[in-house]
Amino acid sequence: MTNLSGKTAIVTGASSGIGEATARALAQAGARVMLVARREERLIALAAEIGDSACHLALDLSQEDAAQVMLDTAIAQLGKVDILINNAGILRTSHVDAFDLAELEPLIAINYTAAVRASLLFARHMKAHGSGQIVNLSSIGASLTAAGTGIYGGLKAALDRFTDVLRVEMAGSGVRVGIVAPGTTTTEIFEDMKSKGLPGWDEYIPPMVPDDIARAILFMCEQTGNANAARMHIYATSEAF
Questions:
Q1: Is 112 designated active site?
Q2: Buried b / exposed e along 138-169 (16+ C-beta atoms within 10 A)
């Protein structure tokens, strides 16, 4: 029997990178997985690869009702939700003189608001069932002060604070809440930088790969008894922050 046999899980941002790797890892550990992202063709392909234990939902998480749609669909297809992985995120970096203000609201919506809305709704659902695991994907950028990263890092810092408080509020309910903060990991998150002729952060050092982070997320979800792995920072071995 695998560690997550009989569990159900939702992974956002499952169409690529860390989300895709995490969906595979949870499924391999025995969980039934709902894949959530905007790019339906990728979700269909991944669900077919995983097999009968996967279903998918094409959804724009920046929409105000997205978290409720995700919960309603999950209940309809999975019965209840044991694990929620809020992984979806976008990265936009620029100094103050060049930042495109049109990108501000999408950054807030995806990197903070979507995760908060989903965390609140699913925490209530899990509390009613007496157990559950919520994992919010942060970044080591939440604790770095570097030019051009103020908005992205600030939103991740805000998500960290919210997640810590949610963990405190869920104490004793059977619902575990945790943060996984990756360091430099080679994913599509750097494509916007590269499309503008800038080097991606994954070009400066030998980066991690999505499977490295998926293993950390799986470890957090496998905790039992009184243990709650509440905060994990995963650095590339070449990072010296």
A1: no
A2: bbbbbeeeeebbbbbbbbbbbbbebbbebbee
Residue owning tokens 């063709």: 41
Choosing from 80, 156, 195, 235, the catalytic residue is: 156
Residue at 241 is within a domain: no
Question: Per the structure block, which two tokens stand in for 172?
Answer: 């004793």
Helix, strand or coil, per DSSP, at residue 204 = coil
Q: Is 94 a catalytic residue?
A: no
Q: Is residue 91 one of the residues assigned to a domain?
A: yes
156 catalytic per annotation:
yes
Q: Where are the alpha helices (DSSP H) in the chain?
A: 17-28, 40-50, 66-78, 104-108, 114-129, 150-170, 191-195, 210-221
> Under a CB-based contact definition with an 8 Å cutoff, are residues 162 and 142 in contact?
no
Using the predicted structure, report yes or no on whether residue 83 has a pLDDT greater than 90: yes
Rounded to two decimals, what is the model's pTM? 0.94
Predicted confidence (pLDDT) at residue 200 exceeds the cutoff of 60: yes
Domain that holds residue 207: 8-234
For residue 240, tell me if it sits in a domain.
Answer: no
Catalytic residue among 15, 94, 119, 138: 138
pLDDT band for position 102 (cuts 50, 70, 90) = confident
Number of compact structural domains in the chain: 1
In a domain, 3, yes or no: no
Check which CATH number belongs to the domain holding 62 and give it.
3.40.50.720
Which entry of 80, 152, 194, 195 is annotated as an active-site residue? 152
Residues 6+ apart with CB under 8 A from 133: 82, 83, 84, 126, 175, 176, 177, 178, 220, 221, 223
